[in-house]
Design a protein that fits this description.
Helix content: 25-40%
CATH architecture of the largest domain: 3-Layer(aba) Sandwich
Largest sheet: 7 strands, mixed
Shape: globular
CATH class of the largest domain: Alpha Beta
Order of helices and strands: HHEHHEHEHHEEHEEEEEHEE
CATH topology of the largest domain: Rossmann fold
Length: about 270
């Protein structure tokens, strides 16, 4: 366990982690151990799926999904009957995605190509009618990473193509320091307690996930954490414009149960 990673966990989650001591194994939410936790929590979540698939339906041509994860959007996107490239960096996520693809009919999974790669630096040598970045994953990139993302998206968008991404409306976080505690039921029946910590004006929020209830968890207890960027949608719009991408639509997504809300952004290559 990285001492730096442990020290970076703030608030109630940090105190609980310190109390567990050596009984806990801390992982990044996107490493091999974390991927299984991520998939249990979010792998079958319906959040934003209907809206993103509906928006993609209005486009034509092949689809590129960035940060595909364990396939939460990949599976419904495949129902559109179009060719799909699913790009993902984390080996643990790719493993789960490939396992899921093996469970669907051959005719459907044959339209999907899983591409190991970084969403901020990729070159697939082709264009797509729709490029999708869900799960507010743009927040996982720093400013340099986002600039790389936009360059790659612009290079891969076909004429008339659309870039669809979801983002957090940070203006709903409130003031001062906030820490939300949420109990989450995993798709496989496991339960988790999630701590989301954010301090006003901080550039990141920290999400940490523990099994729940802890009393029944046996050591080593897998705890997962990640840090997510915090920036206003207006900043994203300005960054997109600087990269030659024009925002054409911004619509709120249904509430997620937390104190903030997500939005769906649609951008095209500027004329």
């Amino acid at each position: 366990m990285s001492a730096d990673l442990r020290a970076a966990v703030p608030g109630q989650a940090g105190a609980l982690l310190a109390e567990l001591g050596d009984k806990a194994e801390l992982h990044d939410l996107y490493d091999e151990a974390g991927a299984s936790v991520y998939h249990a929590i979010a792998g079958s979540s319906p959040l934003e799926v209907r809206e993103l698939v509906g928006a993609v339906r209005s486009t034509v041509g092949p689809i590129l999904e960035l940060a595909a994860g364990s396939g939460r959007l990949t599976m419904p996107l495949l129902t559109l009957g179009r060719e799909l490239a699913a790009l993902e960096l984390a080996p643990g996520m790719i493993r789960i995605l490939q396992e899921r693809l093996r469970t669907v009919p051959v005719a459907r999974r044959s339209r999907c190509t899983v591409v190991p790669g970084d969403m901020s630096a990729f070159d697939l040598g082709r264009e797509f009618g729709a490029i999708v970045l869900g799960a507010t994953s743009v927040s996982l990139l720093d400013a340099t990473g986002r600039a790389g993302l936009y360059r790659c998206v612009r290079r891969h968008l076909a004429p008339g193509g659309k870039f669809l991404l979801t983002a957090v409306d940070v203006q709903d976080f409130g003031s001062s320091t906030t820490e939300q505690v949420m109990d989450v039921d995993g798709a496989d029946g496991t339960r988790f307690r999630m701590y989301e910590h954010w301090t006003e004006d901080a550039e990141v929020r920290t999400v940490t996930v523990f099994p729940h209830p802890l009393e029944t968890a046996e050591p080593p207890i897998t705890v997962c954490t990640t840090r997510i960027g915090v920036f206003p949608v207006a900043q994203l719009e300005a960054e997109l414009a600087h990269a030659g991408l024009k925002l054409t639509d911004c619509q709120p997504l249904p509430p997620t149960g937390s104190d903030h809300h997500d939005v769906l952004l649609v951008a095209e290559v500027a004329a």
